[in-house]
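Crash report, auto-generated. Payload:
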Amino acid sequence: MDFLELKNICKTFGRGENEVKALKDINIKIGKGELIAITGKSGCGKSTLLNIIGGLSLPSSGAYIFEGSKISSYNQNELASFRNRNIGFVVQSFALINDMTIFDNIALPLKYAGKKSFEINKRVKELTDKMELSDKTSFFPSQLSGGQCQRASIARALACNPRVFLADEPTGALDEQTGKNILNIFKSLNEGGMTVIIVTHDLEIASMCNRRIEMKDGTIFNDYNLK
Amino acid sequence: MQIKKPRVVSIFAFLIFFVISFISCIVIDEIRQRANLISASRGYYGKSQIVFAADGASDKDVMESVKKIHGIALYKDDDINNIRQIFVNGNCNNPPLRSGRFFNEKDFVEDKSSENIAVIGKNKVSETTETNGQNYIMLQGVSYTVIGVVGTDEETPLNNTVIIKFNHDSYSGTKIYKIDVFDGNEDLVFSDISKEIENKTHLVPRKIIFEKVGLERILPEFNQKNLYILVMICLLISSVTISMEWANALKRRIAVKRLVGCGKFRLISEILFDYFKISLPAGIFGMLFGFIFVKEISLLSLFAVAISVLCGFIVTIPIVKKLLKVSVSEVLTR
Amino acid sequence: MKIGIVWNGIIRMYKKHKWLAFLLIVQCFVCTLLINMIFGTILKTHSSVSKFSRFIGSKSYYWVNDDPDDNIGFSRYMKNQNGEYKKLKDFYECLKREQSWKFLSVDRQFINIHSAGIPDKFLFQYEQGCPIESEDKSKKDVKCLHVSKNVFSEFGVTVSEGREFQNEDFHYDNGEYIPIILGHEYKDIFSLGQILDGEYLSETFKFKVIGFLPELTEIPVSGNTGTILCDRYIVMPAFSFNDNSEISFFDKASLDHYVSGVIISDLNFADVEERINRYILETGARKYSVNPEGSNVIKSLTSVSESELSRLIYIFIILTIFTIASISITVNGFIRENYYEYGVHLLSGATPRFLVKQIIGFITLIMSISFAISSIVGMFLISNLAPLVSLIFSVVVALLSSVFPINVVKKVDVNNLIRRQ
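Recovered output after restart:
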């Protein structure tokens, strides 16, 4: 059984004259511990595909199976629970709440998972130590640099020990060095056994991954292992 | 020409101002109509009228005495024949008009004193005759030109009344005279009138404390002023909240405009112009829509809408100024 | 823990939009107060109007009066020529006995009270501008109303102090007091149990105050206005007569007054008039006329006051709808302001239900604060029912205001967050 499988996934937006087919018959199988880059030009459907994998939206047709469970038939509450337990998501704009401290931002998924206070405190400390943000927990996102914000975002994504780590243009808003530092974090996560999927248009980032899926006009153009 | 898609917050602002003006038309009109109806049921006098008896004095004596006092209206009623005599010196309460006009001060100047004009209640219209586009009504063999029709939707004594000028002694009615005072203190005015009547007739008029009449006996006190105030506060707060929200939602727009080089003054004037582009048409449409349901839009409704728009406008200024101080990059990147 | 997250979310939302939340609370408070005021007025109006309609407005009246121009007939009666007194008494009995109507003896009079301290407003014909004034200033001719036994019960009249007339009050034995009930405005002048000397129809009597009427008590009496306001009246019983062979002036005068009254009947005017004329012919009494005009005045008062009640209810409904719409739209604005934040919550594993609870909780918090303040203020300024009215209003508004924002929140799309929209 594959860890994660997408069968004949289609996704359309809009209706009638305004209908846009963002994904057309996507078939992918992903194993545990893979480090995958999804590349393609702007508007090819990379982010849409990532959203479906991350349980942020449901496909218009087709099946999304995750460890034997058919995620594409879940309702909203089940999807939320699925995201909370299995998915860690990082985006280009960091997705941090500006008037919450870094501590509260990182603790957010843990609260939704129903963890007790002492568990939350312990886990957040672990993550902030790992992300070198121990002295920034009481700061607000506006007081941190881009790189620090992205590390906080990663810490939050890792809070509930997700099975899959998804990153949508994670270094788009960062300088080259900071970007490399972030990618190193991803690599270390992958080395720890986590499945990491990165959406990027940057070929250099793509070259760091083990597998590359190229997309074009909503379909998979190419899917090959790099290493 | 491309039509810009309006922002959602602007649509809401439009809706709120529309609702504010509509509500102000309806509710303020309803409150006003209640007050009018109570007034009509009591004969359409002012609430603090002076009622007095002048035994032995003729109507002419009383009127001559009252002529010297400005800012009053004098009435005498014949309840059996439903005739009211009126003399206006300055001002008077206008009953709800259906058509034409009510009496005014000009009808009582010397050269018009012999004109036989009348204002009739709506139920009396069937008794009029029309000649050359002018309506006339006969009262005890005398023809009166009808200058206006008054009346309420509900049946009140006003609907059956004929109101004529005061210089007709043939309508004796009762010995009771009523005065509405619009200018000055009622007690002082009555004192002046008493002195005039006493000088003329050597008789002292007697003030009468009248018991409650009309609907006031059945319906409880209705604090009209307090209701108006509370309704106005509701409307004002609604306009302030939506204006604040509208202004706060401009954060990103302001940042982008500043990014491309828009000056501070120009930015503020554009925002305020946008505000009036939403609030004024909404207010006007609301009033027009309200006009379908009410017979007339009162000045108070217009005032309520104007003050709501103005307060909303005043509230947006500090918010916009605050937003101008926020860093552009912070807004656009976070 | 989940409740804790929701509560924290509510507090954060409140703190983030402090000023707007404050204004929303003030608006809800003002609306609740307004609703309380109008509701209080509706209740009082309804009570007053329904009492008037039930006891007075729902009936068909005919006023029975003698012919005021029939001086010859009146003079013959007072001289008791040809047994005129007995004829009138028989006619009176016919009126009372008739099965197809209820006859109530109620008419205005004056009685002479030996008290110098009575203000002019109580004098007979004071409001008409020509009060009757005695030469003896220690005596006053004051307004009086005589009523038969059935008048109070028929018109729902009760006393605010003291007692109502009882059966024995309608029989006068010489030397006894005549019990009188005073109108509300007499409260500052006389007291319960006070004995007053006076004259009625040229006879000297002692009158005993047995009760006071509530303010604005109305009784239908023949006349243009249809009803009279009893606040300045003395109400006395129309007592029955002793069957003496000697018929005094008092007997004749009082009978003459008692025949003037009110007929309440479902019969039409022509039928009532026909019966009256028949009784006059049968008994040989002098001419009495019947008139339906006052009934129209009463009916128009009833219909106008009922339409006033509808108007108040209309204002009440409109203001409630306005409050709901206003809060709904404003809270919706809060949601749009927090769209990004809600997206992050959803991304982190929150369910849409969490957001819905947060919205409901926020609206409930706003309504609770305004309810608390408006209940206290309303209880002091308006009525004791204010807390209950505020509670019902707050609950209804909170529920209905939540509908629209909840629908919006359910549609929050995390994708828009990812796409930075």
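Post-recovery validation: DSSP finds eight helices and eleven strands in chain B.
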